[in-house]
Amino acid sequence: MLALQSITEEIAEFKRARRAVILEHHYQEPEIQELADAVGDSLELARKAQEFSGDVIAFCGVWFMAETAKVLNPERVVVVPDRHAGCSLVDACPVDQLKAWKAKNPGYTVVSYINTSVEVKAESDILCTSRNAVKIVNSIPAGQPVLFLPDINLGNYVREQTGRENMKIWQGACIVHATFAARKLSTARAEHPSALVAAHPECPKDVLAMADFIGSTSAIVDWCATQDAAEFIVMTESGVRYSLERSAPEKKFHFIPNEQCNCSECPYMKRNTLEKLRDALRDLNPRVELAPEIMERARRPIERMLAVK
Ligand code: 13P
Ligand code: SF4
To answer: Is 3 left (phi over 0), alpha (psi -120 to 50) or beta?
Structure first.
C-alpha cells in the first residue's frame, strides 16, 4: 500500500515537473486509470492529443495510439510506459504488403483503421476508428471503390452498415475480439437472461448478430449507462469494466473469456504498469521518434478523419 502510494506520488511529481498529461485507453488497469487526465476510446484520445498544449504526453495505451499523438504533436515528447505495447492488427498489415495491394487496385480510396503503423497511415487516404468507421466510409462518394484495412470483422460490419459492395477488406484480426465465440455468448445469455449485449465491432459476425448494441469502447460505456437494463454482457476487453462501473455503479457487467486464453485481456495493453509509467515520465523513454517526412504524410489522413464530425 505504502509502495503504491509512493509510486503515485512520484508519478504526480514527474508529471508536474515535465508539464505532462496522461492520456489513457479504457483497457488500462484501474490503478493506472486513476491517474489519467483523460480516459477514452481511440478517437477521443486522438482528439485530446490534437488539443494538447503542454510539453509531454504520457500515453497509456498501445504504440500506434502514441504514434498518432506524436504525428499531431511533432514538436512535443510522447512516451509510452512499455515499448512492446503493440497490437495484432498493426502486425497484420506490413506497409510493403499494403503497397502491393494498392498497386493491384489502382483508383481505390484507402481507408485505414487507426490500429495501423505510422508507415501504413502515410500510405492511406483517410483513417477511421471503431467509433466513426461507418461515418468515414459514408463520407466517400458512393461510386468510389474502397480498400479497407486491416480488420476483417470491422470491415465486414462497415460493409453491411453502408451497403457498399465495391469495398475490398484486408484479412487482419484482433487477437482478443476475434476469438470471442458465439457459443460462449449463448451460454452467458442463458445464465443472465435479462442482460443486454454490447459488442465491439472487432468481434466476429456471429457475435455481432447477437448484440443489442455495437460500438467503440466509449460508445459501449455511454450506451450501458443510458439503458434501463440492470445487467449487461460486454464483448470487449475486460479493462473497460472500470469505466463501466464508474459511469453506472448500480449496474452489473459480465465479461466472457475468449477462446484463445480463457480471459478477455489484451496482452499488449496490459504491459503498461505504474512503475513503467513513473520511469517513462522520469526518463522520457520509451519515446516515440518518427521521421519528419513520415509524420508529414501520416498527418493528412489523420486530420482528414478528425475533420469528419
Ligand atoms: P476503440 O476504438 O474502442 O478505442 O478500440 C480500440 C481498440 O484497440 C479495440 O481493441
Ligand atoms: Fe490491438 Fe486487439 Fe489489443 Fe485492441 S485489443 S490493442 S485491437 S490487440
So the answer is: alpha
